[in-house]
Amino acid sequence: MRTALITGGSRGLGRALAAGLARDGWTIVIDGRGAAALHAAAADIGGSVTAVAGDVADPAHRAALSRAAADAGGLDLLVNNAGTLGTTPLPRLAEQPVRDLEETFAVNVLAPLALIQAVLPGLRARRGAVLNITSDAAVEGYETWGGYGAGKAALEQISRVLAAEEPDLAVWWADPGEMRTDMLRAAGEDADAAPPPEEAAAALLRLISDRLPSGRYRAADLAGAR
Prior knowledge:
The chain contains 8 helices and 7 strands, in the order βαβαβαβαβαβααβα. It starts with a strand and ends with a helix. The chain has helices at 12-23, 35-45, 59-71, 98-125, 146-165, 182-186, 197-210, 219-224; strands at residues 3-6, 27-32, 49-53, 77-80, 129-133, 170-175, 215-218. The chain is an alpha/beta fold.
């Protein structure tokens, strides 16, 4: 039995990835800050799904996630998908409240690293995988996306170094592209014109099913390579 821990699994890309893996027979552990939405998602996904409500920036919650993965028999895949935009409306760097970046980095950078550290012994034992969800904002100079993009760039560098340090694991950092999500809408973009997250999830699931080499991937490229 293969087990995946997916943060931010109550909606959007995380939920779509959880549903796809559940259909393939995986045991799933998902989290989200809203308990009602999280448990509704778990019921919708079906199969063997454990829902653990909480904030990934909270060390006690991360410990609970690690225990849930261990209780499921061990972990094969960690998906660091939970994230925050930070300051909204997205400001130019000249107006970026620096203190707001503390929360952005806590959720988008420090929490993924701490969760990796917590589950790494189990992943090593099972020659598992880590999938970190990043963004094109990590590598492009989009106006007003500086704070969010800086956090995602840091997550990409963590991923790159982790891949070098843990050659027996598969470590992927992936840009899903624009998706029809509440986060894109909160950023002031036309979310209704974007494709549903299920399309990006279908592409990213190829990383897992084919266990592609560690590295950076774009969902658009993976979909085009099918």
